[in-house]
Automatic annotation (TrEMBL):
Keywords: Methyltransferase, S-adenosyl-L-methionine, Transferase. InterPro entries: COMT-like (IPR016461), COMT_C (IPR001077), COMT_dimerisation (IPR012967), SAM-dependent_MTases_sf (IPR029063), WH-like_DNA-bd_sf (IPR036388), WH_DNA-bd_sf (IPR036390). It comes from the Eukaryota. This is O-methyltransferase domain-containing protein. It comes from Aquilegia coerulea. GO terms for molecular function: O-methyltransferase activity; protein dimerization activity. GO terms for biological process: methylation. Pfam families: Dimerisation, Methyltransf_2. The keyword Glycoprotein does not apply. Residues 132-335 form the O-methyltransferase C-terminal domain.
């Protein structure tokens, strides 16, 4: 029988308690975003440490400072805040680099909408049904939890959810695109570029600003999505269905598209991309790429957690894939050359050449 006083058993019990209570982390993140704590601390870059009472006084006139401090302390343990203990008793907080990702920038963007988007009621209802994806992978937990409606259908019918989704995607896309545009040369020589699933057109706008030789950008998405897209110089918004056909171009760009579909659906999308490209044309897909072996690094955890999110919300057999799995998808749809460029820690740039 195991010695329950041993260091190994003590650590094991501690670890499972942390895992069982892990919901406290995303829900507390959700709380501090709703309370506007990151922007309050940032104060145009000063990031001056404030107590829970001082933060509360700035975000609203009434509230419980002790409960706010409890949230701040817990998130400090996850490196969202830095805790400053004054005179051995008073606690003040400032933002870490992680916390700064939640601060609204000059363009009105941050990762805060991404946090809120993940925790909407329709998505939260799905999580107690994760086991159903194992029992019956033909229907997503989201669909079972929301009266038979798919996530994409739900967004299309709910204006507020769709608006938050677009803002969340913009907040994530812009920093990633800045990294790509600084470290990737694959847009050289491209004159006509299609962004499949381009939403509001943020990615195309940034690509065209960096690469003025791209004379025409086509933002291709569902008709109800592009109908709300803003006017962008050099960009044409085109509504359509990527499973039926994709506009002709020198290169096709997509970000976080293949991940949310099954292997067969990915092949259908990539085949349409192949047919829309000239000889030598390229598909540039930015997707999460799983490591071959599992470890406990932040990167691996983030990628595997995202994989479960896809399985639960979008497609029970949609998934994050390894580099080899993506290569095989490309070969099966006609692409003859393939390379992976690791610039960002979450998204990898995948080039498929016709």
């Amino acid at each position: 029988m195991a010695d329950e006083t041993s260091e190994t058993r003590n650590n094991a019990r501690l670890a499972i308690l942390e895992l069982a209570n892990m919901i406290s982390v995303p829900m507390s993140l959700n709380a501090i975003v709703r309370l506007n704590v990151p922007d309050t601390l940032w104060q145009s870059g000063s990031n001056i440490p404030l107590s829970a009472s001082e933060i509360l006084a700035r975000v609203q006139s009434t509230g419980d400072a002790e409960n706010l401090q409890r949230i701040l302390r817990m998130l400090t343990s996850y490196d969202v805040f830095t805790e400053h203990v004054i005179n051995g008793s008073e606690r003040k907080y400032s933002l870490t680099e992680v916390g700064k990702t939640l601060v609204t920038d000059q363009e009105g963007l941050s990762y805060a909408p991404y946090v809120l988007q993940h925790h909407q009621d329709a998505l939260m209802r799905s999580w107690p049904l994760v086991h159903e994806a194992v029992i019956d992978p033909t229907v997503e937990p989201f669909v079972k939890a929301n009266g038979g409606e798919s996530a994409y259908g739900y967004y299309g019918e709910n204006h507020e959810m769709n608006e938050l989704m677009q803002k969340a995607m913009s907040g994530v896309s812009v920093p990633f695109m800045k990294a790509i545009l600084d470290g990737y040369d694959g847009f050289d020589g491209v004159s006509r570029l299609v962004d499949v699933g381009g939403s509001a057109g943020d990615c195309l706008r940034m690509i065209l600003q960096k690469h003025p030789h791209v004379k025409e950008g086509i933002n291709f998405d569902l008709p109800e999505v592009v109908a709300k897209a803003p006017v962008i110089s050099g960009v044409k918004h085109v509504g359509g269905d990527m499973f039926k056909g994709i506009p002709v171009a020198d290169a096709i760009f997509m970000k976080w598209i293949l991940t949310t579909w099954t292997d067969d659906e990915c092949k259908a999308i990539m085949k349409n991309c192949y047919e829309a490209l000239p000889k030598g044309g390229k598909l540039i897909a930015c997707e999460p790429v799983l490591p071959l072996e599992t470890d406990s690094s932040h990167r691996t955890r983030a990628l595997l957690e995202g994989d479960i999110f896809v399985m639960t919300i979008y497609r029970a057999k949609g998934k994050h894939r390894t580099e080899e799995e993506f290569r095989q998808l490309g070969l099966s749809t006609g692409f003859t050359q393939y390379r992976a460029i690791y610039i960002d820690h979450f998204y990898t740039v995948l080039e498929f050449i016709k």
